[in-house]
What we know:
- Its EC number is 2.4.2.1.
- Strands 5-8-7-6-9 form a 5-stranded mixed beta barrel.
- Strand 2 and strand 3 form a beta hairpin.
- The longest helix has 19 residues.
- The protein is an alpha/beta fold.
- It contains 7 helices and 9 strands, in the order βαβββαββααβαβαβα.
Amino acid sequence: MTPHNHAKPGDYAEAVLLPGDPLRAKWIAETFLSEAICVNSVRNCLGFTGTWNGKRVSVQATGMGQPSTAIYCHELLNTYGVKTLIRVGTCGGLNTKVKVRDVVIGAAASTDSVIVKGAFGNYNYAPVADFDLLRAAVEAAEAKGLPVHVGGIVSSDIFYHPSGLEAYKALIDHGVLGVEMEAATVYTLAARFGAKALTICTMTDCLITGEEIDSEARQSSLNDMVEIALSVATGG
């Protein structure tokens, strides 16, 4: 147990899906997992363990942003022996080739967060996904016939940026696909503690064109994303 998690040793599977929203964690558990049980409810940051296609898997909410995500990832890896972290969430689009409902898989994650940048002194560390997980996710998306984009994303600590889209201009110019708020920390902590990590996002609103996904399409798109993540987490 930790100050943020009352799960017992063994309560988590070796692979954990990481949505930010606790209610999305609950929805994933109730919608996709068999025999799911709640293993953590401290601060309402809900965690569940069940099975998918007969294989054990967990889902744990991380809250919003990298400081909160860092706490849960650190404890999952060091206290509960988790080996694979797969962030599942939404992102804003920074590239017009990515359309709403498309799947974005983060091969690498830039960041403005001191959670990552402050740990490496004069170096700019490049947090990247595990290649085997990435390849499996692409294959799963293609098997479902889903539009999928693989490339750089950015994890920002600022949601309402005072400079608006201009804040991301250099990243856009270098082909970054989307912006979200957690992936860089997930990748960094996985690297630090010898685990595997991946981020799979659904693009729900394009910051360049203003196109947004409607509520019905959002839900069906999240279904696709979660099924890809579960396939990767359980090895198919």
